[in-house]
Amino acid sequence: MAATTGTGISLEELQLAARNHGMPLEALRHPITPAGLHYLLIHFDVPVVDAATWRLEVDGEVERPLSLSLDHLRRRPAIERTVTMECAGNGRARLEPRPVSQPWLSEAVGTAAWRGVGVHALLDEAGIRPDAVEMVFTGLDRGIDGGVLQAYERSLHLDDPALADAVLAYEMNGTPLPPQHGFPLRLVVPGWYGMASVKWLARISAVDRPFEGYQNAQAYRLRRDEDDPGVPVTRILPRALLAPPGIPDFFTRERTVPRGPHVIEGRAWSGLAPVERVEVSADDGETWWESELEDDLGSPWAWRRWTAEWRPPQPGRYVLCCRASDAAGNVQPLEPVWNVGGYANNSVQRVAVTVAD
Predict the structure, then answer these.
(1) pLDDT tens digits, residue range 148-170?
(2) Under DSSP, is residue 66 helix (H, G, I), strand (E, B) or coil?
(3) Integer Cα distance of 316 and 85 in angstroms
């Protein structure tokens, strides 16, 4: 998704925001995000698909091309992955200058149980030829992005470890995929930002050279300026989010809580390595204390719940923050790092809270 920079929210951005939605942050209290609250980004239109005639084609550099119906896929051995998925543009609206695109704050995330067929099982059946280097996943949604007419397509290198964990999902949270989440079949790539998880999947093609489609070669790249070719956006950077305590003001969303001890909670995740620490601050990051970290879902690809006790010393206004660290030594930054597309902004969340006497 291309982006320019701007100040006020444009009509075009409002159109995007009306079509797409984030997860209300109070839903962080759910281990599994209900499908209707899971974040949603639709690049083009939601295709209307007839499941009776739909087919998944597996072709290209393969020995045995496949054409599979939904019933064929459902009869195969199933796997289930509980996966936290986050949009690469999450946090974009907090950058200065602000890239003009889908104006995400910090809600573009959700965790679901995805059930379907392992990608590798299908590739083994098709027989990947030795000269193949990447798999291209093509969806049924079509449109124009960056002036380029295209179907939404992304690729993964055959050697990427994510391919071994990827699932071709036909169910979300125990029910058939909703239309907006990719019915009848979507790709789910654990640990990667959501742009890799192609919806309304129609074709998987093995290719003998790096894929240069728009969504790989031009969109979803970290670029310092318009002339920078950049590097690809791939795995999710560590992030912790706080479920806002107390009650909100309707317009500002600032919180009010009564005086006294409070247990605050949230979720933390990383696509680079398991989260091993979450710290909390009540003074906008001046001082920190450590939370209690749980592993309530038991999935290496899912967020972890954390809790911390907070005892405000007196009434007044506070700014709560939380930051995650993962086992590879990656830590959330206090301030964002700007890039042209506004991608991968994992700077700490700040929640203004008034403690009432």
Answers:
(1) 999 999 999 999 999 999 999 99
(2) strand
(3) 36
